[in-house]
Structures are given as C-alpha cells and as structure tokens.
Specification:
500 residues; alpha+beta; eight-stranded antiparallel sheet; six-stranded antiparallel sheet; 25% helix; globular
C-alpha cells in the first residue's frame, strides 16, 4: 500500500520507496489519505501518484483514516489486487525471522514468516545461520496481541517463543527449521547492510555503562543494521562507538534508548566512514578521526544521491545550500506546476551535521529529502587535530575538506578558549594539520594576588614574593596538565548549532 497525504502530496521518501517496490515486482495499491482536511487536494495528489506508478488516477483510492471514509474499499482492493502468500506445506519447515523482541520471563520472542512446512508448540527448532538449538515454548499469531495457536503453517505470519536468555544467539534474517526434519538450504534472509554514519554514545553517569550495554544488545535483537563496539574517551569516559545507516536511524536509536530504557545519553558529533590508502599501500576503513593515520596517500569519502522535493519558489535557496555543501547538480524536473524534484550528488560528510535543519529553515519547512549511497570518491580531506598546552586531544579531532579546514579550526579554538577554565599559567589552544598550526588562541593565566597580605613595608619583600610566584608558575607550566571539562567537549560538538 502506497499511502500519500492529500494535503502534502508526494514526498522524496514516497518516490524512493515506490521505485523500490516496483524494482521488486510488488503489487502496489495507491491510496490518498486525509481527504477530510480543508486544505486537501485529492485529485492533484492522485494524478501525481498515478504518474509515479504508471497507473490511472481513477485507480487511486481516496480515504480518510480519521472518519473511516473509503476504508472498506481499501480492504477490498487488498484482497483483490495483492496475491496470496505461497509455500509448500509438505516441504521441510523453514521460517524467516523478520523481527524479534525480548521478554524478561520468556526470553527471546522471534517474529517469523513461515515459508514452507509448519511449526508446532514444544517442537525442537534450530537457527540455520547461527546453529542455535531450542524448543518452541509457544507458537501463535498477532491479533493484534499475541494469541497462542497449535501450529504455524506455510504462508502464515506469527511468533515463536524461544526461551533463549542470551539475545545474541538469534538474529534477524536467520532461518528457523525443525530439528526432526531439517531443511537443506536456508532462506536468502536480508542483505548485510554497512553502517555509514558513526557517533559515540556515552552515558552522562558513568555508572550507567552496564545498562547502556544491555540496552544496545536488546536493540540489536530487532535491528540487524545497528553496529556498536566499546570505546573509551578521555573526556566522556566509557561508552560505545555506534554505526548507523543514516541520520534518521541514529535519531531513532538514540530516542529509543532514552525512552524505552530510561537512559540519559551524550551523543558525539556524527561522522562518516572514510577509505584511506596509506603511503605504504595499505587500505583502511576509518570510522573515527582519531584513527586516521599520519602518512596518507589518498582519502575517499562516501557520496550520496539526494532527492529533494520543494515548492518552485524555494529552488534558488536549495541550490545555494547544495553548492555550499560541495554538491554536484544532476537534474531537475517538475512533478506539478508548483512542486520541483531536484537531484544532487553530495558528500555524506556534508549532510550529517545540520544539513536537514538548514534545508527546512530555508524552505519554511516545505522541503522533503531522501538519499541513496552511490559509492566512494577521492576528496581533498585533512585531519585537523586540537592541541591544548601542546598535548593533542583525540576526542576533538575532525576530518574536514581542505577549503574549510582553516574556518573550522578557527571556530574550534575560539569556542575552546571560551569553555576551558583559566589556569595559573598561559594555556595555548591550537588547531593543526599535521605539524602545521592553522589557528591558535591563548587562555590567559589567572593571577593570584600574592601581595594581598603586604600592608606597606619595604618594596623588596613584594618583589621577592612576585619572583617566587613567577618561578612557581614556570615550574607549574612544565609539570601541570590542563583538564578539559565535559562542557567544552559538548560545546565543540555543538559548533554548527550555535550557542545553545
């Protein structure tokens, strides 16, 4: 079912998902929803959808899910147009795990689609990819709550309660089969996806680290595309480096961790994966700027093809934004008299911070945005390091385009000068590319009034105290270290968002 808002019309994600369905030979039932709204234009939306899927506007159903108008026709269309599931009831049983959840009393609950054969309660089952064996404690359907049944047959969708307490022993995309009469070949499952956007997740209270680890394990259970590994930061303590499919995926994971597991999290600035070829000819994939080697032959960054749908009045501001972000114009087409589709190729690294916010603000919220990865391309990229009192701080390293390196370095040191508290000695804050310093600020020393206790008397006593202070400061500068407070790290992560 392809559902489109009658007031908003087709959006960029609609186009992307419609093409995906067409490529996979799926039957599409086009529907225009929210026809009850005063600003709705069902005929214009229906014409747009018909043009997209190669159908006629009369075939597009018009409904209001709020009032119930036209819902019966949608149910009839599903029965008439969508083919029924197929499967061999006599073949060895095979079921695809498409999702799962965790119940603290009953363990992992696998949501399955039966392709061949059938499953019964108390039947011994095996996961073909991971080799995990268990007995099905219960099988059943969703109606919409879980309702137990005697068996699940071919073509049916339901659940299997596995009793497994270790969430890592069953993954989405695996094939379940019977131990008594196992299948020879597993189902194709899902294509392994590569995370493209990376960010650090750290609990604000370091004592919550075990809870964050358990929460990520449980999320991984029904999100095969989530990647995470432990990470330690000098400033933020213990946490995890997580890989996401994109920015929306990152926002969803963060929101779920905070809402469902009641965690208070710090999320570092997102960055992308880079392909680096060293001077020795070794090829590396770098997820974190601090891992970037010094001797680099070339750096390749991921590029995306962005689809942006905007009202025609905002085409200029959107083109200007994409040019600022190193975008390459592909083509433009009018979907209707008022709406334009713009296609651009952009570096993924340029959209991970505030691109979407900028797009929405420049188009008064009317733009819709979707993207697909198109591969890696060589770029003029540099690693910018931050040195505080001559010592590099890994957590603040950045990978930026050569043209924007100076501006970004200047922003960094200016913000750090405001955030790092003054010491009893001068503290230089520098941004450097390799051994070349591109920006510098000095946090001036705090002066302790050593003469406060002198009430008159000989001037030599005051000089002696000042000399002693001078020597002490010199010694402190040699052995002293500068602690960077957490607020400074958070302020730097928020560089693009202004002072919030």
């Amino acid at each position: 079912m392809l559902v489109v808002d009658a007031a908003q019309g087709i959006e960029a994600q609609t186009v992307a998902n419609a093409y995906l369905a067409i490529e996979n030979d799926l039957e599409i039932v086009p529907v225009v929803n929210k026809i009850d709204l005063p600003q709705a234009d069902p005929d214009a939306s229906a014409a747009e959808i018909a043009d997209l899927v190669g159908d006629t506007a009369e075939h597009v159903l018009r409904i209001s899910a709020k009032t119930g108008d036209g819902v019966a026709e949608v149910l009839d269309a599903i029965i008439e147009r969508i083919p029924p599931p197929s499967g061999d009831t006599a073949a060895p049983s095979r079921a695809l795990v498409f999702d799962s959840s965790y119940d603290q009393y009953r363990g992992v609950v696998a949501f399955v689609r039966m392709v061949d054969g059938s499953f019964h309660a108390r039947e011994p089952l095996r996961a073909m990819a991971q080799g995990t064996r268990f007995e099905a404690e219960e099988v059943g359907f969703f109606s919409p709550t879980m309702s137990a049944a005697k068996e699940l047959g071919a073509g049916e969708v339901g659940y299997v309660i596995t009793g497994l307490k270790d969430v890592s022993r069953l993954r989405v995309g695996d094939t379940l089969t019977s131990e008594r009469r196992p299948a020879d070949e597993p189902l194709p499952g899902y294509k392994d996806v590569k995370p493209m956007v990376f960010a650090g997740l750290f609990p604000t209270d370091s004592d919550d680290y075990p809870e964050l680890r358990d929460a990520l394990e449980k999320l991984k259970l029904n999100d095969a595309s989530l990647f995470y590994e432990p990470e330690t930061s000098q400033a933020l303590g213990f946490g995890f480096r997580c890989g996401f499919l994109g920015l929306l995926h990152m926002e969803i994971v963060r929101e779920r961790l905070e809402r469902e597991f009641d965690l208070d999290l710090l999320v570092t600035a997102p960055n992308v994966a880079y392909l680096v070829v060293t001077k020795a000819g070794e090829e590396l994939e770098v997820h974190n700027p601090s891992e970037m080697p010094r001797e680099v032959e070339r750096i390749e960054e991921p590029y995306i093809k962005a689809s942006i749908i905007v009202p025609k009045d905002f085409v200029g501001p959107v083109m200007e934004l994409n040019t600022e972000r190193r975008g390459r114009f592909d083509h433009m087409e009018y979907l209707s008299e008022e709406r334009v589709l713009l296609l651009y190729e952009l570096p993924l690294g340029e959209i991970v911070l505030d691109y979407y916010d900028q797009l929405k603000s420049r188009t008064k919220g009317y733009a819709s945005f979707d993207y697909d990865l198109v591969g890696f391309r060589e770029g003029k990229l540099e690693r910018v390091d931050v040195l505080i009192a001559g010592e590099p701080v890994d957590a603040l390293s950045l990978i930026v385009h050569r043209e924007g390196a100076y501006a970004r370095g200047r922003q960094l040191v200016d913000r750090l000068r405001e955030e790092i508290p003054r010491q009893f000695f001068d503290v230089p804050v520098q941004a450097a590319i390799g051994s070349r310093v591109i920006a510098r600020e000095t946090i001036k020393a705090k002066r302790k009034d050593v003469l406060a206790k002198c009430y008159g008397g000989d001037i030599t006593r005051k000089r002696k105290l000042l000399e002693q202070q001078k020597k002490g400061k010199k010694r402190m500068k040699q052995v002293g270290s500068v602690e960077v407070p957490q607020e400074a790290f958070l302020a730097v992560l928020n560089l693009d968002g202004g002072k919030k």
